[in-house]
Amino acid sequence: MLSAVTAAPAREHPSRRSIALTIVAALVGTALLVWQVRQVGLAEIASGFSAVGAGFAGVLVLSWFRFVLRALAWRALLPPGVRLGPVVAAAMAGDALGNLTPLSILVGEPTKVMYLGRAVPPSRAAAALTAENFFYSVSVAIYVVLGTAAMLVAFPVPGVVADAGIVALVLMAVVLAGAAWLAWQRPALASAVVSRLPSARLRGLVDHVRTFEQQSYGSSGGQAGRLATVVLAEATFHVFSFIETWGVLWLLTGASLPLEAFVLDTFSRIVNVVFKIVPLRLGVDEYASREVAEAIGLGGATGLTLALVRKGRVLVWAAVGVVLVVRRTRRRLTSPVAPRSPSTS
């Protein structure tokens, strides 16, 4: 094990690389976005935003419910008695920092755990969050498989988009196979993830997380109700996401296009998975949405405007999340430290 003297410089370099990577990815994404806007034309995009109008408030409401649903899934795996409000705020804070940095899982997930503070022992919060992310990843894989298969069957898409769809199907099949293996083997997944986090404070919780995992596996037979809540919340999350895309597409085109909305929402999910390194998926999400919309007959302008509306929603909640992080940080710096109650994990 490296000594504290050698470990300090080692942490500095990844931080510098992370900042440099963020800047490069943001610049490339911005250039790609500017190019697309010039290709489509500002007048066309402005017309699309005008058509959405007050409907953007509905987009925000639907997306807020998605935060609540994932928070419900996480809370179902936490100790009884945890209030939903702080869990929702933690999810929003972590999502904001995860979207604004290239190392989403290394920044956003620890932020969620630390945001809960003394409400939940960090070992329990980290293990429960890892489990929730597992279920969410499985739900994403299933959603992508269904949406991509629908696209390949229903639309005569050109070669590039079809090839991307086939690659997505293969990748998601691998994810589902891996998830089945993890469910069968029940490895100490949370403790393995926590041990690799950049926070020394969180790494010190590995033994507590591992103990919690062993206790959870040992009593898994009595967790059917909690797991049902998690599965239902994750599935409903995708339903709300689909409704959001369907509604925006209806505002942009004046027609009800559920299958097209399903396909476009699916590819947005693929972009979120593959291009996590790009802050806000800047430029990449817009490009994918434009190409897929063109391929399924909606026109590139519709796809680009849809993605820009989605980007506006992400920016709004990112701003809210940053405010939540700042407020929580100030509160901790100014409030006296109270003795922590004994952990029940």
Structure description:
- The protein is mainly α and 345 residues long.
- The chain has 14 helices and no strands.
- It has helices at 4-40, 42-52, 55-76, 84-100, 104-116, 122-154, 159-185, 189-194, 200-203, 206-218, 224-253, 258-274, 284-295, 300-334.
- α4 packs antiparallel against α5 and α5 packs across α6.
- Residues 1-14, 217-222 and 338-345 have low confidence and may be disordered.
Q: Give helix and strand order, one letter per element, not per position.
A: HHHHHHHHHHHHHH
What overall form do the CA principal axes indicate?
Answer: globular
The average pLDDT is 81
Low-confidence stretches: 1-14, 217-222, 338-345
Distinct helical segment count: 14
Count of DSSP E strands?
0
Q: What's the N-to-C terminus distance? A: 28 Å
* Rg estimate, integer Å: 21 Å
The major β-sheet equals: none
Helix content: over 70%
Q: Please indicate the percent range of residues in DSSP E strands (runs of 2 or more).
A: under 5%
| Structural category | mainly alpha
Write the layout of secondary structure elements.
Blueprint: H1 4-40, H2 42-52, H3 55-76, H4 84-100, H5 104-116, H6 122-154, H7 159-185, H8 189-194, H9 200-203, H10 206-218, H11 224-253, H12 258-274, H13 284-295, H14 300-334
Helix pairs in contact: 2-14, 3-4, 3-6, 3-11, 3-14, 4-5, 4-14, 5-6, 6-7, 6-10, 6-11, 6-12, 11-12, 11-14, 12-13, 13-14
